């Protein structure tokens, strides 16, 4: 792919995402917080900004599990997974002033978590390129662990499959097929346009098909 | 479209997986406390840069003033007139 073709993608990820940061997204029924919760969140955000540590602690305790569920798609090693959740809330604290209550707090946190997870994949990809023969990379360790039940086995298999793709491809397929997001939700989480999500998903599926064909031969 | 079917079926099953419970509130609190105690590098750098710029400007002004006040001032003036 030439540089001219890469430019819009780079623009999307670097600048257009943060610009669209506060747009309103459609709410999934399972994540729909009621008005009272949102009011409580907003009160805690304001208190945290005024230096009330207990208020931020309440927010972390309220949302650590939904964020952990999303980040489990990004890393299946418990120690690193916990670190990613931790990093998400630390990053969120320092960006708290940018939260404008246009969308529920959980949506805003999920966007930050997606960014944290994607950064982790990119860093891991760089490490893999620099040390291709290192023993015990997270990807390898993920596949060694014994799956306890059917759902976990499917998750292990899916993670192993997606792990062979580049972070960008993995991100879009993880959000659409594992997290079960719609195109609009995936666009909201990544900061890409819906058209870009569709194009990226198409390309990622094509690359996955190629990998599956190669594995069959 | 085998990859699509595979993604959809695995994704659907994988969504049923139980995710380990996490407790990060204490760690987050600790990290935030440590980060807030650290000296803020950016304001320090900004302050030192502006102080340096102010000192350099002051030095230039004083040098020009000193040159104009020195016995060499007349010599410099006639030299510049000669050059024109």
Sequence stretches where pLDDT stays below 50 over 5 or more residues of chain A: 14-27, 135-141
Mean pLDDT of chain A: 83
Largest interface, C-beta closer than 8 angstroms, per-chain residues:
A-B, 36 and 29 residues
Instruction: Output the helix-strand order of chain B.
Output: HHHH
Which sheet architecture does the biggest sheet of chain B show?
none
Report the radius of gyration of chain B as a whole number of Å: 35 Å
- On the 0-100 scale, what is the average pLDDT of chain B? 86
Low-confidence stretches of chain B: none
Cα(first) to Cα(last) distance of chain A is 27 Å
Helical residue percent of chain A?
Answer: over 70%
Helical amount of chain B: over 70%
> Cα distance, first to last residue of chain B?
84 Å
Number of strands of chain B: 0
Strand proportion of chain A: under 5%
Largest sheet of chain A: none
Structure class of chain B: mainly alpha
Radius of gyration of chain A: 18 Å
Structural class of chain A: mainly alpha
Tally of alpha and pi helices of chain B: 4
Shape type of chain B: elongated
Q: List the total number of helices of chain A.
A: 10
